[in-house]
Amino acid sequence: MAFLELSQVSFSYPRRQRPAVAEIDLTLDRGGITAVMGPNGSGKTTLTRLMMGILRPDAGSIRLKNRSLREYSLAEIGRCIGYVFQNPDQQLFCNTVAEEIGFGLLHLGWEREAISERVEFYLNYFELAAYRYVFPLHLSRGEKQRLAIAAVLAGEPGFLILDEPTAGLDAYRKGLLIDYLKKIAGLGRGVVFVSHDAGFVKRATDRVICLESGQICGDTGQVGDPGYAD
Amino acid sequence: MRIDPRTKLVLIACLTTLAVIYDTPGQLLLLLGVTALLLLMFGVGPGVAWGYLRAYLPLFLTLFIIQAIFWTGPGGRGQALLAVGRVAVITGGGLEAGAGVVLRLCVVIVVAILLTTASSRDFILGLVQWGVPYEIAFMVSIAIRFLPVFREELIDTVTAIQLRGIDLKKVPWGQKMGLYRSLLFPAAYGALLKARQLSESMEARGFRSYPQRTYLRRLRLNVADWVLMLSFLAATLVLVWLQIRFD
To answer: Which of B95, B118, B141 is the last residue of a domain?
Structure first.
């Protein structure tokens, strides 16, 4: 039983002649790191937004833990899968960097002390401690990217989807991100990311899926542990 | 049908004026029909208009219910259609007022679709040829362009909040209002930051480098433009006068 399963999924944006993704069949399991690659406009971001339930497929079905994605609310999907948007500005909405990292935990009823501890860890790991009281939209592109990733990772979702996570990151911080992704994949949590960065993909991934004109044109094959526990 | 953007601005002004002046569902329904016909004339089908209106259905429903329950006219609330004991909850007058508010909003939204039938460049050019300073015309067009962008950003923020595991439907109202209030400042400040970036980008590309601007193209009003503009202006003046005279 796959963690996330797409069957014959197609989606078109309104007033566009060509479908953004067409007849996608894909299964993803927990464990392992999968990269989605492809040229601009090949449907990578659309595919991740479909997997997150932000977009609804025109045809085909998506199943999360063997239940149709339509049966889940966005919040329920968010508790199963962490999602880092392509543009970090879209997901930064708090008044300070520290608030941003702790936001989800606070509203999920975590204890203050546990939140502080978790926030401190991610501030340090992503080298954002100096900016803890800074308004998130005042950060540089790379800092915003690190914050968006930290804010999603803080919730420790069982599966992660990251859309262009290396945009704006320098080589050193890409290395840190690879280490972290490998660590969480090693703990049996799946990771899927969209990237154009061939070097990063080569160093980080176990599986590479290539998209072209909305269709899968290459897949190095399934990896990871097909079973999962809640 | 090729119509000058200035004619469209006049039509928009006439139709929105009538939408504000009219208050009965019958009048507003008729106005909505005329607007829909105009849109058809400009190649915008009912499906497109419905696409815009559909997004506002929850707002329409809320406004309708509020008006239906709380509306009180000068002569009272009209005939009670639903009462709890001696208290009339829903009245004929309330339903009429609710329908009026919803139809007025529908007219305004459908009229606004006219703005999408010409490029913002053409609207700027039209306004400049009418003597509006270029800076003001440009600002208006930017504001029009950015309103849907701002709306989409707010939707993205609400999506991002939910994807952090927070089920907004299950959050109690008091807490939900607090949550939205705390989001208001970052959203407004984010918009200001974007405005600043936009102005820097414009200046970097030579905006207002010279006091005079030249234009490659000039818009010309043709006979159809004059006929449409004058007939709509005349009809609007007459209808407004009739409404004031006999209301």
So the answer is: B118
Per-residue pLDDT at A64: 95
Q: Is the pTM of this model over 0.90?
A: no
Cβ-Cβ contacts under 8 Å for B212 (sequence gap 6 or more): none
**CB of A95 closer than 8 Å to CB of A47:** no
Q: Is A155 near chain B, with CB under 8 Å? A: yes
Quick: pLDDT tens for B81-98: 777 777 777 777 888 888
- The burial of A128, by beta-carbon neighbours within 10 Å (0-12 exposed, 13-18 middle, 19 or more buried), is given as buried
C-alpha distance from residue A151 to each of A82, A85, A96, A169, B11 (Å): 9, 12, 12, 16, 49
Q: By C-alpha distance, which of A32, A22, A26, A34 is closest to A2?
A: A26
Give the mutation candidate from B50, B164, B175, B182 for the A interface (greatest A CB count, under 10 A): B164
Residue in B with minimal Cα distance to A148: B160
Q: What is the domain class of A29-42+74-219 according to CATH?
A: alpha beta
B139 falls within a domain = yes
Closest among B111, B109, B114 to B43, alpha carbons compared: B114
Same domain, B69 and B182: no
B90 and B7, same domain (yes or no) = yes
What single-letter DSSP state applies at residue A94? S
Place of tokens 């005279």: B245
A109: three-class secondary structure by DSSP: coil
Q: What are the pLDDT digits (tens) for A58-105?
A: 999 999 999 999 999 999 999 999 999 988 888 888 889 999 999 989
